[in-house]
Amino acid sequence: MNKKVLIIYTGGTIGMKRSDSGFAPTKGYLAEAISHIPDLSSPSMPEWDLFEMDPLLDSSDMTVKEWNLIGRKIYENYHLYDGFVILHGTDTMAYTASALSFMLKGLDKPVIITGSQIPLSEIRSDGRDNLITSLLIAGEGVVREVALYFSGKLLRGNRATKMSADDLVAFASPNFPPLAEVGITVKYNYAVIRRGGDEALSFVPLSEIPIGVIKVFPGIQFSLFESIMTDKLSGIVLETFGAGNIPGGGGKLIPIIKKAFASGSIIVVCSQCPGGTVTLGAYKTSSSLKEAGAVSGKDMTTEAAVAKLYYLFSLGLSGDEIKSYMEKNLRGEMSE
Ligand code: ASP
Question: Which of 91, 164, 166 to mutate to test the pocket of ligand 1 (most atoms within 8 A of CB)?
Fold first, then answer.
């Protein structure tokens, strides 16, 4: 029997049309554009249905609300389809991929998120190949997790990050090998593909938790961030230098982290470097972070750390539980 895939179009460049104020998503346009791609009705393709979200968004406007809508749509249609393709803007694609990987617990079918740098409405669009290949991969069912397909590479969704605003090879997963490389054939990297368990799929909607990302820089005045870190934010991703280093050995930051932790905030230390891992205590400049109660994001991307904080807080866990899960691998988002 032919495989069936549900395409969920959320917005983004792939289905955008030129307007007086720049490219913008247009209702009904994607359906019209893909009806002119004969390959999509080839017998070698899975059967597919298209669902268009309303409103269509530039992905910079995505919020927890839209993540929940996409996640719920997959959950409610899970038994009807063999796989799912999410068409999404590239700007926040890695965040949505990460969020879906946490929200869809027990996922055992492909959820492939893709988009394009050049709209389908323009010549030289990369959207055509990204869509066709994603559909084939979603129908094939080898990868049973949330993955991001772009320009010949299938990446684990919660390991991916947008690397370029204009290259067609826009995404990479510096800390994890591709799940597949696509040339003349699709070469799956079976050794790293996650295997689904016996657990049934469950869907955990995310709550609008106050989360913040603070990137340290030379000369940062930590005192300016004190009130938001201690009173306003529940989860904070601290993007530090290198392996987890902060200016001044954290002298000014440590009392703030202690106060934030005492008031229920969780501070996760990630690196500004796309590749490599945070090792708290490797240098004197990071030891104090650990002592103050910050947790190590190890080799997680900031996108995955943000999504994981939303997820763990949405489960209603205690501060200590959230701290401990932040340092554990839940969906392949960090190396053990
Ligand atoms: N701004 C667009 C978006 O993220 C960019 C893209 O799709 O490539 O929706």
Answer: 91
Name which residue sits closest to atom 7 of ligand 1, judged by CA: 89
Compute the half-sphere exposure of residue 60: CA atoms within 13 Å on the CB side of its CA. 2
Give 133's Cβ-side CA count (13 Å radius): 25
For 106, 284, 311, the CA distances from 133, given in Å and listed in that order, are 24, 47, 30
In this structure, are residues 196 and 106 in contact, taking their beta carbons and an 8 Å threshold? yes
pLDDT tens for 87-111 read 999 999 999 999 999 999 999 999 9
Q: b/e per residue, 9-48, with b = 16+ CB within 10 A?
A: bbbbbbbbbeeeeebebbeebbeebbeeeeebeeeebbeb
Amino acid letter, 228: I
Find the 178 Cα to ligand 1 centroid distance in Å: 22
Please tell me the predicted confidence (pLDDT) of residue 286.
Answer: 81
Asked if residue 91 has its Cβ within 6 Å of ligand 1, the reply is yes
One-letter amino acid at 246 equals I
Length of the chain: 336
Q: What is the pLDDT of residue 134?
A: 98
Q: How far is the CA of 299 from the centre of ligand 1 (A)?
A: 26
Residues of the chain predicted below pLDDT 70: 1, 250
| pTM for this entry | 0.96
Buried b (16+ CB within 10 A) or exposed e, 67-103: bbebbebbbeebeebbbbbbbbbbbbbbbbbbbbbbb
226 CA from centroid of ligand 1 (Å): 33
Question: Could you write out the DSSP letters of every residue in 43-73?
Answer: TTSPEEEEEEEEEEE-GGG--HHHHHHHHHH
**Over the stretch 250-271, which tens digit does the pLDDT of each residue have?**
678 899 999 998 989 999 999 9
203: tokens are 């869907």
pLDDT at 218: 94
Residue 170 Cα: closest atom of ligand 1? 8
Query: Tokens 């209702």 appear where?
Result: 27
Q: Active-site residue 13, yes or no?
A: yes
- 3-state secondary structure at position 7: strand
